[in-house]
Amino acid sequence: MANIVSVLKKNKKIQICIDYHDLNTVRPKDEFPLLIMDVMINDMCGFERMSFMDGFLEFNQIKMYPRDERHTSFRTLLEVYCYTLIPFSLKNGGSTYQHAMNVIFHEHIRKTVACYIDDVSVKSRNKGDHLADLKRVFNIMQAHQLKMNPINSLLGEANSKFLRFVVTSKRIHLDPKKVGAIQEMQPPRNLKELRGL
Asked: What is the pTM assigned to this prediction?
């Protein structure tokens, strides 16, 4: 049985988490492979319109196998509870979510849809097709009760950030905000500074 742990977030709010360290230690690792990010990023180039969406509450959208729910039990002052949806801190949450996305969008992967865990993008070669492509994907999401976070989503973009890269219809390049600190860094002036890098 897992314990509750309180964690102070960057925004100074307290988040309640369940410590599944012991469970994660004894559970076998799911060897379902995550997609190769370089291939996904290259596949984004050459599209006139793109939409980028972020899964709402990530793994919490996938139901636990009923027989495994008891393994997620945790104790509170009042009672013992367990999850019926996959909690965030389980070891195989990412691979399970990726597998679910591959099944849900299997007909459209690498054609008009790219999924990397909870990041879903819809891409259209011609900007005039984008609304139809989005509607098709939204219908699939609705059929599977898959929810996206509207705050972290961008629809109908000619260029945008995807997996830390800036993607346009013609090229892919690094996000200037991510490489700015490296470009502004002064070269080492002596051996001691060089060893410090």
From this structure: 0.71
Question: Residue 101 in 3-state DSSP?
Answer: helix
| Ordered per-residue pLDDT tens for the chain, 197 residues | 888 888 888 888 888 888 888 888 888 888 777 677 777 777 777 788 888 888 877 777 888 889 989 988 988 888 999 989 888 778 888 888 888 889 999 999 888 998 888 888 899 989 899 999 999 999 999 999 888 888 888 888 777 776 677 776 677 767 777 777 777 877 778 888 777 65
> Rounded distance, CA 180 to CA 142, Å?
40
CA gyration radius, the chain: 21
CA–CA separation, 112 and 136 (whole Å): 10
Q: Amino acid identity, residue 71? A: H
| Cβ–Cβ < 8 Å for 146, 61 | yes
> For the stretch 84-96, what's the b/e string if a residue is b when 16 or more beta carbons lie within 10 angstroms of its beta carbon?
eebbebbbbbbbb
> What is 16-83 written as a DSSP string?
EEEE-HHHHHHSPPP-PPPPPHHHHHHHTTT-SEEEEEEETTGGGGSBPPGGGGGGG-EE-SS-EE--
